[in-house]
Design brief:
about 375 residues, mainly alpha, about 0% strand, elongated, disordered C terminus
Length: about 375
């Protein structure tokens, strides 16, 4: 007999001698512990235990019922009458049975999710045999504790509807983010909205996944950013950050969600991505970010990190990433139906370039240029 069982039996015997326990409760717990310590209990012993439980379970206290529920719920040899007798007590005892693996049919489990109280749903959320419909129903409850339990339950499937809801909540609830990023069953595309909160390895994986998506489904070419428009953004950066973010978001088609997300992101990673998506060069974007005059602008380490981020993504990828983070979908830019042949019969015409080459200045040069003569702020 295992030492833990021996110790528990000794404690029960002491309490029984002192008159601290009902003997029916002691008998059930002792018999249960003896059976649990047996690798392969005999059918006769199991049948005797079932008959004993049928007779005694209705009269035992809730504390004892909870102990038995925890021990017997997931035990494959638990006699049917024992499980049924414990389940009949309902409330906390039934929740404990569900939490610890009591066998339940899918339809019955979904019914319990629909009709059960918060304790019942919390017990169901940690089960390893949840189906997609049960997960969707639990997420639909909009309960933070249920959500966190489901996120931590890696055995639970994560259908797209549930992922979308949890990702949306993760934008405003920091506690959701580490668990979602740690789930091995979520794709990098699904986790792209949490890019700002991901580690370096996950960020790289998200970028690579977006690059693969871009290769399969290329984005429409976005309108070039004009010099006067960028000059206006620079002026706004020093005078009114929110207005500057709104102008960039309007240019990209991200609207208020993108502007609000940029304003809320103190790291300025999202602003850097949005600037890259708009077609600015790294040098231009760095000027804008320093002009903001916030904590990120005054940190050389942060500026270097922002430059590294901007150099790691192409505008199309930065655009996709910014939209994922903001949780919005921008309309595709209007394409002009004008055919430009590569060559015509008379020769090779001079062709104007569609985009400016991206400058790649050394960081010391960028900081030197900007630090020497910051126009405002």
């Amino acid at each position: 007999m295992p030492a833990s069982v021996s110790e528990e039996l000794a404690d029960l015997a002491r309490l029984a001698r002192e008159g601290g326990l009902d003997l029916s409760s002691i008998s059930l717990r002792v018999k249960a512990d003896l059976l649990l310590s047996t690798p392969q209990p005999s059918p006769g012993d199991l049948a005797a235990f079932g008959e004993m439980a049928e007779a005694l379970l209705p009269g035992i206290d809730e504390a004892t019922a909870l102990i038995l529920a925890r021990k017997l719920a997931g035990w494959p040899h638990t006699p049917g009458p024992v499980m049924a007798g414990l389940a009949a007590k309902g409330g906390a005892v039934l929740a404990e049975l569900l939490r610890h693996g009591m066998p339940v049919q899918e339809a019955e489990l979904e019914g319990l999710v629909e009709s059960g109280d918060e304790a019942m749903r919390a017990a169901i959320a940690v089960r390893s045999d949840l189906n997609a419909q049960a997960v969707i129903m639990l997420v639909a409850a909009g309960n933070r504790e249920l959500d966190l339990a489901l996120i931590a339950n890696h055995s639970a499937p994560m259908p797209r509807a549930a992922v979308d809801s949890l990702i949306t909540r993760a934008r405003i609830e920091p506690a959701y983010r580490p668990g979602l990023l740690a789930r091995p069953d979520l794709s990098n595309i699904e986790l792209a909205p949490l890019f700002l909160h991901a580690g370096a390895e996950r960020r790289l994986a998200i970028i690579e996944s977006l690059m693969a998506r871009e290769a399969l489904h290329p984005s429409e070419r976005r309108p070039a950013l004009s010099g006067p428009v960028f000059a206006d953004w620079l002026d706004l950066a020093a005078e009114d950050r929110d207005a500057a973010f709104s102008a960039i978001a309007e240019h990209l088609g991200g609207g208020a969600p993108l502007a609000g997300a940029m304003a809320a992101d103190a790291s300025r990673d999202l602003a850097a991505l949005a600037l890259t998506a708009s077609g600015t060069t790294v040098e231009e974007a760095t000027r804008f970010l320093i002009r903001l005059g916030d904590d990120a602008a005054h940190s050389v380490e942060r500026i270097f990190a922002l430059v590294a981020l901007m150099r790691s993504v192409k505008p199309a990828i930065a655009f996709r990433l910014a939209m994922h983070i903001a949780g919005t979908t921008a309309a595709a830019p209007h394409r002009r139906g004008q055919h430009q042949p590569a060559m015509d019969p008379s020769g090779t015409p001079a062709r104007a370039g569609h985009a400016r080459p991206e400058a790649q200045p050394a960081m010391s040069e960028v900081l030197g240029k900007i630090g020497a003569k910051r126009e405002r702020g």
